[in-house]
Each structure stands twice: as structure tokens, then as C-alpha cells.
Backbone:
């Protein structure tokens, strides 16, 4: 495992003394954070926690991020008038079997050389699902009772095994797990208690999404109470500084990894390190890639891939005016329909050489009600917005790309979001479970097996058996005249 090393990587010595810490904050114009400490108002036992909190921040990064966010506001931010649909993307439905085979071969070959890694964005909690814990620990109700984390890891294990069988003796696929301060310890323990679901422990790298201090409109760090700084997560775009500060980016380079696939934890049909997508991006010599599904209707509340000033961007649902939202082409397809599903490809060189040097320009201002310390150091809750938070989105780096690749894939095969509580009509564990079952039904049918029950019968094929529908007939052989409800490697069938 890779342990956090943010203090070292951010330029803050791990053994920084109080005097050195104070001097650093005073030099940055942030000496006010020591007020309550100097006045003796920090509660007993909180002093060390406060100093630990202060030591983790690179104040140069904070200042540059604020400067970039303010510059965005001053220039008026984004303009809807500049938006045009992407002019260069590939629809999987239009690709030839030869193209898809070529991409898949290239992807597996890269995995076989140890040049690919996968990263799951797993900092969120299952609150909206009514689940008390990291969302990746959630069981959507499949016959196997596998959690989102287990489904993902088993897909990676299957990929590595297949890459070895295809002649890649060096096949290795590091799995990066971006947690948050809220769930890091619980996530690590969950993996350890389950022996990393069959992956080698050294191939599972945990790193925490960062936080940034909350600021006054004048740029001063806000104290939430006498002994606590007001802080907030820096958005999923915080993956970039977190990769650097944790040491994971350097470790990827040292391991010879060239391609990184990043995706969200809350998609039950995600295909981590998808060889077809990796190979497609390699064939385009892309430095950045995005896998999309086409919007089902104009009102589907997902961002879309577009262009602004000729540069690739993701436009949030709320940014699109009604005219663009409903615009259709001659075939009746939405023009602005390339829905973003948080499924991205990056070269490690692009991250290291382009993104990291410019990551302070990614952040945006969010005006918020931020609890602050009153004169006596106790927490005061404001009635109106009194401060700002800095946040970035993972797709904010798209305009930095010089060779963007966009692949439109099939929703029914790769996008089963798990966002809303059970019983919700869309994007719930129930709808995701049904999509996983329907996919298994298609795979089993294509393998020539007779299917049990009717369309409502729950079916499941373990990722250890098949990553994308391959190998089912070879695995089952003639053992079953009727497909099992749950096809699991090492377990046979369960009904």
C-alpha cells in the first residue's frame, strides 16, 4: 500500500516546528490562525490536532488556487455562446469488428506490459442510499452479495489473468483508491479484512482526496472554532494534487505505468482499465480521453462533452440553454448529447507535465455559509453566505489536452449509476441490479445457453468468469443445459 505523504510532497517538512509553522503562515498573511492558541482559548487536548491540521496545507497552492478562481470570475467564467458540440468522437455502435478487436488487443498488450493502472474515485459516503459507510462498501443486492468494491477488483483480477494468457507475462495492474478524510480508515480496513478481494496488497494503493481551508472574501483562512480550521473537500478535481502529494503519481512513473483509467465508484457496470477504451485512446495517441453515453432525453441531468473556443470541455446540465439542450441532428439525435459518466483516460506524462504545473488554475469559487469562531472561540453559524470554498472538477483539465479522444459506448453495457435510495425510479440499487442482471442475460444468451425463468429472474455472472461476455461457454462447457442464476468461478452455480 502507498501511505499518505502529503506533508513531504507539498514542501512542508514532516518535523516542522511550531516556530517554523507560525513563520510560514505569517509570511503568507495567514497569521490569524494562531489567535486563539495565543490567547489560550484552544481547549485542552486540541492543540496538537490544530497544528496537525495546519501543517498539511501548502499555502502557496492555496493562494494560487484562490488567484485562479478569482481570475475566472473577473473574466466572466464560461460563456454559453461559445459552445459547440464535439467534432471528433467515435461511436462504438459504428465501429467495425476489426477496429474493436484492434483496440482490445492493444489494450491487453499494454496491460501485459504493466503499463496500465486503474483509479476509483471512492471518497463519498452512502448517505443518500441510507447506508452508513463508504459507498464502495455497499451491496446492491446481487445474488453474490458482492459490494461495489469487490465487483471492481474482480474485474481487474480477470483482466490481469487474461492479459497473462494472451502472452503478457509482466501483466500487472495497480489499483488506486482515492478515499476522503471521512472514510479513509474505514475503506482501508474493509479491504484488509477481505484480503483485498484476491489482489496482491502491494497493488492496492490508497490515497486521500485533499481538503482546502475555507476563506473569507478577502482570502483569509476561517477558523471554525478556537481549535479547528474550517475546511472542505477540494472536489473530485482534487485527484490531481492528491496524486502528487501522496506520492502515487511518482510511483506510477517509477513502475512504468503510462496510462491511467479513472472512474467513479457508483457505477455498477463500470469496466476498470477497459482494454477496448485503453486501446482506442492509444490508437489516437490521446493524452486525455473520455468515455460517454448518449443522453436518453434532453432533461437527463448529466453534463455533456462539448467544445468551448475549440477546446474540449464538459458542460454541466445547468449551463446548457434550452435551445442547445433540445437541438437535434438530421438523425434525430441530440446534438449536445455526449453524456459525461465520470470515466476518463489520462497518460501519466500528461498528468505530470501538463496538469500538475497548472493545477492551481482549475479551482472555482463556491460562496457558502461557513461556520466560524466568535470572539470567545465558540462556533457561530451564519445566516447568509460569509465565505468561499475552493473546488475543482476532474474534467477541468480537458481544455489542457492537445489530443482528446472521445468514445461513445452503450449505456446498457457500461452505465448503471447507484446514487439514489432503494425504491427510487432511477439511478438506484434496484435499477443498477436490474441492469447487471440484464447484461448477464445477454451474455448467457449469446453463449448459447438456455435461460432460466422469465425476464424478472435475477442472473449474475461473476467478473472472475467474464469481464465483458467472453469465455462463458468455455467456462460452463456442457455442465449446464440451463444457465445458473449465479455463475461464479470456484463456486459453480447457485440458485
Residues:
Amino acid at each position: 500500500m502507498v501511505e499518505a505523504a502529503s506533508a513531504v510532497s507539498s514542501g512542508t517538512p514532516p518535523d516542522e516546528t511550531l516556530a517554523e509553522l507560525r513563520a510560514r503562515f505569517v509570511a503568507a498573511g495567514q497569521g490569524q490562525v494562531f489567535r486563539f492558541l495565543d490567547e489560550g482559548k484552544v481547549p485542552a487536548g486540541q492543540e496538537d490536532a490544530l497544528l496537525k491540521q495546519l501543517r498539511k496545507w501548502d499555502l502557496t497552492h492555496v493562494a494560487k488556487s484562490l488567484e485562479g478562481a478569482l481570475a475566472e470570475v473577473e473574466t466572466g467564467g464560461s460563456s454559453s455562446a461559445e459552445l459547440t458540440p464535439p467534432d471528433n468522437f467515435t461511436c462504438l455502435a459504428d465501429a467495425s469488428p476489426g477496429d474493436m478487436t484492434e483496440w482490445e488487443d492493444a489494450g491487453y498488450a499494454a496491460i501485459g506490459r504493466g503499463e496500465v493502472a486503474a483509479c476509483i474515485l471512492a471518497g463519498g459516503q452512502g448517505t443518500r442510499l441510507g447506508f452508513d459507510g463508504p459507498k464502495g462498501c455497499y451491496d446492491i443486492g446481487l445474488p453474490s452479495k458482492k459490494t461495489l468494491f469487490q465487483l471492481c477488483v474482480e474485474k481487474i483480477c480477470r483482466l490481469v489473468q487474461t492479459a497473462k494468457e494472451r502472452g503478457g507475462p509482466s501483466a500487472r495492474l495497480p489499483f488506486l483508491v482515492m478515499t476522503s478524510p471521512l472514510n479513509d480508515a474505514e475503506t482501508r480496513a474493509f479491504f484488509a479484512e477481505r484480503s483485498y478481494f484476491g489482489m496482491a496488497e502491494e497493488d492496492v494503493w490508497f490515497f486521500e482526496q485533499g481538503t482546502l481551508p475555507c476563506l473569507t472574501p478577502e482570502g483569509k483562512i476561517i477558523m471554525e472554532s478556537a481549535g479547528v480550521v474550517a475546511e472542505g473537500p477540494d472536489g473530485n478535481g482534487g485527484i490531481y494534487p492528491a496524486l502528487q502529494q501522496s506520492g502515487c503519481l511518482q510511483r506510477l512513473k517509477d513502475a512504468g505505468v503510462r496510462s491511467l483509467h479513472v472512474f467513479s465508484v457508483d457505477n455498477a457496470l463500470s469496466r476498470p482499465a477497459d482494454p477496448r477504451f485503453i486501446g482506442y485512446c492509444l490508437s489516437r495517441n490521446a493524452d486525455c480521453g473520455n468515455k460517454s453515453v448518449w443522453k436518453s432525453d434532453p432533461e437527463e441531468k448529466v453534463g455533456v462533452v462539448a467544445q468551448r473556443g475549440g477546446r474540449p470541455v464538459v458542460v454541466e446540465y445547468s449551463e446548457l440553454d434550452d435551445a442547445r439542450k433540445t437541438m437535434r441532428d438530421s438523425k434525430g439525435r441530440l446534438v449536445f448529447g455526449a453524456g459525461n459518466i465520470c470515466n476518463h483516460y489520462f497518460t501519466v506524462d500528461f498528468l505530470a507535465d501538463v496538469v500538475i504545473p497548472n493545477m492551481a488554475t482549475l479551482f472555482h469559487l463556491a460562496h457558502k455559509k461557513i461556520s466560524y469562531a466568535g470572539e470567545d472561540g465558540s462556533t457561530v453559524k451564519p445566516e447568509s453566505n460569509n465565505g468561499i470554498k475552493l473546488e475543482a472538477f476532474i474534467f477541468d483539465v480537458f481544455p489542457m489536452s492537445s489530443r482528446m479522444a472521445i468514445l461513445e459506448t452503450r449505456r446498457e453495457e457500461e452505465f448503471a449509476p447507484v446514487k439514489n435510495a432503494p425504491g427510487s425510479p432511477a439511478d438506484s440499487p434496484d435499477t443498477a441490479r436490474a441492469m447487471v442482471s440484464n447484461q448477464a442475460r445477454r451474455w448467457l444468451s449469446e453463449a448459447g445457453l438456455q435461460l432460466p425463468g422469465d425476464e424478472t429472474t435475477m442472473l449474475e455472472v461473476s467478473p472472475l468468469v467474464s469481464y465483458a461476455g467472453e469465455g462463458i461457454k468455455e467456462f460452463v462447457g456442457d455442465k449446464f443445459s440451463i444457465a445458473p442464476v449465479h455463475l461464479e468461478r470456484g463456486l459453480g452455480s447457485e440458485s
